[in-house]
Predict the structure.
Amino acid sequence: MTDILMPALSPTMEEGTLSKWLVKVGDDISAGQVIAEIETDKATMEVEAVDEGKVEAILVEAGTEGVKVNTPIARLEGGAAASPAPTRAAPEAAPVAAAEPTAAPVASKAEVRDPEFPEGTTMIKITVRDALRDAMAEEMRRDDTVFLMGEEVAQYQGAYKVSRGLLEEFGERRVIDTPITEMGFAGIGSGAAMAGLKPIIEFMTFNFAMQAIDHIINSSAKTLYMSGGQIKSSIVFRGPNGAAARVAAQHSQDYSAWYANVPGLKVLAPYDAADAKGLLKAAIRDPNPVVFLEHEMMYGNEFEIPDVEDFVLPIGKAKIQRTGKDVTITAHSRMVGFALKAAEQLAAEGIDVEVINLRTLRPLDTDTILASVRKTNRLVTVEEGWGPCGIGAEVAARVVAEAFDDLDAPPLRVHQEDVPMPYAANLEAMVVPSVEKIVKAVKAVTYR
Amino acid sequence: MARTAKASDSDKKLSNVSKDELLKYYREMVLIRRFEERAGQLYGMGLIGGFCHLYIGQEAVAVGMEAASKDGDQVITGYRDHGHMLAAGMDPKAVMAELTGRAGGSSKGKGGSMHMFDIATGFYGGHGIVGAQVSLGTGLAFSDHYRQNGNVSFTYFGDGAANQGQVYESFNMAQLWKLPVVYVIENNEYAMGTSLARASATINLSQRGASFGIPGETVDGMDVFAVKDAAERAAEHARSGKGPYILEMKTYRYRGHSMSDPAKYRSKEEVDEVKTTRDPIDHIKTMLQQAGVAEDEIKAIDNDVKAIVLEAVEFAQTSPEPDPSELFTDIYTEA
């Protein structure tokens, strides 16, 4: 007998909904036959049988949500010996995702209310993905010059389903599928911005934006200056940045430091749904070119956001995500969740950590960082990118230059190991920053 | 779809050309030539720094194309941009002062020769990265299409840029979406020091859009009326919603690629041959004479232009350098 397992249908999938069985107990099935439909957070996929045999039992009923990858969902009698899940993706595809510390919203007592949230508002739960979508939809409703352009943003509804429903609401004039031509459409967007439109240019991932980086920097960031203030470029370049899971070197790079190095750009890196919505709305309204670095691993995560009409966050302001008195951790994007998790562990050991969610990488909110370090006297920076010339290097340099006398220990940086992203699961886990590495760094700066 | 507009085509049309029109084009072309000669001189004196690419020899292209443009149309080009700016109607003083890096320059001295812009005349640069302006110009056309304003983007690039990948990405999207853009390829035969034949597998650049179904023509870019005639046809095509159009302008630059290029890759005879037999200004001057315009009238224009250029040179030397406080302005627009 052979178990049919819940397949992983994307690099980041941890669970899914078994929406429909296309076979029943007693049916004879053949290899390659479509036996079920599974809904992931991105799409509905058909599952094909790998083995042939008679269906002996359906173990997970149709309509069941949250079925974990690798759970047996049906059993075949006869056939060959036990075989892996009927899927294109390897069943071990999600070990990194399984370690995702941000999946469960942390409700530590040390976490603080966001001062940007209006007093007394009710909160609603929403995924980062939907927060981004809502931000674009709201801004497109209020300004006809805002449009979305990129690969698969319209009919396909977004490669990561971030633009779901936008084509239906705004039509093909404003939600535009492009050919696979990053340099071309980034240039067309930059030109349209020079003429006064407000493009949102979606890159399927920022890894592909390297093809287009000339337009982001030479054609957008520098134009206001080169034109003596005449030509404004109100344009947002957005998409997932950094490492997903098991997609290896060419699809896993964090570009935070690259863009944050360039005057003329604003660079934002949201962590949760409130950041995603409030900062993306601010980015679209901003009259400057904005690089908006999202994280694929965060798209499906739910967070609370204030249920208000028009929620916009300020650009250039960091957020104290958790207050503490012993050590300051700076982090952005997905790493904020890692830092919070580390802070919880450390609290149990009597170390009180303050976590700063940078939110904006350029302009960096130095004041908030300095104020925190002047209180804690210790600094650990966390980022997903490589260390040399990175965001942590910049934060540490500013702290050393401006708060040298307040430091009781040299600042430490936690970052990706200085190698291209490996594919093998064990090596990948070694390369990326982890809660354990953050805990270790915090203990080092507290001499524990 | 390939056709070649020869000088004879425009000669036929000459009966429709008014004396005023002839004088206008003559004036505009002479202005560019005298301006560029002075720019070269100022470069030699150390008043202009960095890169400086002169337009001498190519004047008929920018002037003839401009004749087909309407209010609100956009022009964008690469770094050999002085001629396009003057043809678009930018103030020669502001252009020359930008070359000398002065506060009175069109970019307050912060752009230089390769980076000038002027929204009032629809001039969108002035771009230093070869080929980038093709995607950007397609984006300007995207904005015209988005707004349905009936305007056209005139997007210039050279035979060198014609081999850049993003040119073809742009061609594809422009035709796919029927964007109102006229691509003007100024084929001056040399991409810096490399001749077209040494760099291009196919040298009929007007047909570079063929695989996208974009019509193209090869035009005598040394004949301002041939240029104008083709420009009107191309602009009408784009304006009427039929999408992009390619004009390959056969032209020639008399000077080196930039001021520091001795142009050893071509013979003196080759350059002299073009100067004596194909010069765009000699061509229109002959037409003026044939039209019976008095020598004095031509001379008066020459003198006028000379005065305008000298005034620009004077301004470019007396306008102060930008105030140090300008260093940190125009990096961000206040939100």
Remarks:
- Chain A touches chain B at residues 147, 173, 178-179, 181, 183-197, 214-215, 218-219, 223-232, 234, 263-264, 266, 285-288, 315 (CB under 8 Å).
